[in-house]
């Protein structure tokens, strides 16, 4: 049974914890550095990246999280979680703090105000059929490095899911769609690492 930490400072971490529970994994709410010990994977939830970054900085969590990710901890970010993992953020608030580690440039709130939230059925690499994807004031990936693989694009071609090594990031919210296959795919990444180790 795998232990997956879910950063639980702000946002929809409860939905991630319940998705993990449904899949038979153990979800652990992360609010302190010591709670990173002994986890096999990490989820950064959706919410508001500016607030999440601020709280994480106040708690001294940014560097330990980055250290764990750089050490190879499988990590999955959704929406604000994707922004938290991005090396560079466009339309960030001044002084916005994040974790980084993922070689992408994301744009926050990329869909403007008249299209704040929408759903689209997405084709995601490695998943059979389509996946219902809920976008809420979502970011997009505007640029990415050579080590980054695109997992999904919107019908207008914009990049909304990527993988770089053990890091997976999605601009939408698999934790609220009720379709658990993307969490399942993340747990497969976690399992493949634990088996190697
Ligand atoms: N717009 C939010 C941000 O900048 C992300 C929204 C979300 O996670 N649904 O962090």
From TrEMBL:
MF terms in GO? glutaminase activity; pyridoxal 5'-phosphate synthase (glutamine hydrolysing) activity
Q: What is its EC number?
A: 4.3.3.6, 3.5.1.2
Q: Where does L-glutamine bind?
A: 47-49, 108, 136-137
Q: Matching InterPro entries, A to Z?
A: Class_I_gatase-like, PdxT/SNO, PdxT/SNO_CS
Does the entry feature the keyword Zinc-finger, yes or no?
A: no
- In the UniProt entry, which residues are flagged as the active site? 79 (nucleophile), 173 (charge relay system), 175 (charge relay system)
**Keyword Lyase attached:** yes
Q: In which pathway does it act?
A: Cofactor biosynthesis; pyridoxal 5'-phosphate biosynthesis
Q: Which PROSITE patterns match?
A: GATASE_TYPE_1 (PS51273), PDXT_SNO_1 (PS01236), PDXT_SNO_2 (PS51130)
What keywords tag this UniProt record?
A: Glutamine amidotransferase, Hydrolase, Lyase, Pyridoxal phosphate
Reactions catalysed according to its record: L-glutamine + H2O = L-glutamate + NH4(+); aldehydo-D-ribose 5-phosphate + D-glyceraldehyde 3-phosphate + L-glutamine = pyridoxal 5'-phosphate + L-glutamate + phosphate + 3 H2O + H(+)
Stated role: Catalyzes the hydrolysis of glutamine to glutamate and ammonia as part of the biosynthesis of pyridoxal 5'-phosphate. The resulting ammonia molecule is channeled to the active site of PdxS.
Describe, as the record does, how this protein assembles with itself and its partners: In the presence of PdxS, forms a dodecamer of heterodimers. Only shows activity in the heterodimer.
The UniProt family comment states: Belongs to the glutaminase PdxT/SNO family.
Q: HAMAP family annotated for this entry?
A: PdxT
Q: What is this protein called?
A: Pyridoxal 5'-phosphate synthase subunit PdxT
Species the sequence originates in: Saxibacter everestensis
The gene from which this protein is expressed is pdxT
